[in-house]
Please model this.
Amino acid sequence: MRRLTRLHASGRASDLDLAPDEAWARLVAAGPDRHWYVDAAPFVVRGALDRAVGGAGRGWPVPDHGHLRVGDRAGFWEVRVADPRARRLVLEAAVRAPGTVRLTSRVLPRIPGGSTLRQTISFEPGGLVGSAYLLVDLPARELVAELAHRDTVAEVAR
Model:
């Protein structure tokens, strides 16, 4: 696993022994069953924390169709981009935060074979409170990025 940390974003990348199209299909899978974007422990905890501070914590069910599409909602995420050609998925969190939280996942082809899953959690602060939160939140965001990426890789690779 490779790590990338910047002030506004925490990222991880892992190589997979799957063709890019197969990894993409597993990444955006919807319908019944377990799904990394709802069931990963950091996202379950974040939803509970949101409810504890007066937010909705969003319990949106996973869509019934086969894969995530723009406009879908699942857990506390709203799908903003689901581009199969670029193999890029952007989820935006509908939680209480002084800014915008996004999770971007990309599946990239790897030479000579397989693929790379790259995920980035970003935070764009809103106002002075958001800027202060950006600094305080960095260690927590790093932990969430690490644990969520591990869960995603485990689910996509199985």
